[in-house]
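Please go through this protein, sequence plus structure tokens, and consider how the sequence yields the tokens. Keep your notes short.
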Amino acid sequence: AASVCGMEFSARRVAQLLEHDADEVAARCDELVRGKYWLADAGVVDLPTGALDTRYAFRHALYKHTLYQRIPSARRVTYHRYVARALLRERDESGAVTAAELASHFELGHEHVAAVAHYVEAAESALRRFAPREGIELTAHALTLLPRCPEGPVRLELELGLLSHRGI
């Protein structure tokens, strides 16, 4: 489940995905860290609620990739949907989540309308940071997802947003 969250993940989020106790998940991750297996300690984070959350990181992308591939496809999609919604809530609280990260999880969760909407936002952000090449790459990828969105005014609005950012 941690491999779905990314190279770095929080014990709390993995516990929520697995419907386990966060302290239990953190303890198991700590065992792996102490054993110098495939996880490293990434520190403790203060949450907006005042609670603490333990973070971990995969020691190498191959570990993450191998574990990710072992998850059944349908479960991976479900996990990505859950992570996308959790990140959306986290972004509302702290603003620390990027639109590109949200877009990626929505895409892997097969929620294409939300993915394209966040790719539009990510392209806009790239343009604000004077990163036109990144904006073009984001819009090009999002345009490949557009046919998977249902016909209608929402799709047209998304297409207009992508093309206008791409034009800039």
Q: What stands out?
A: The first helix runs from residue 2 to 5. The first strand starts at residue 8 and ends at 10.
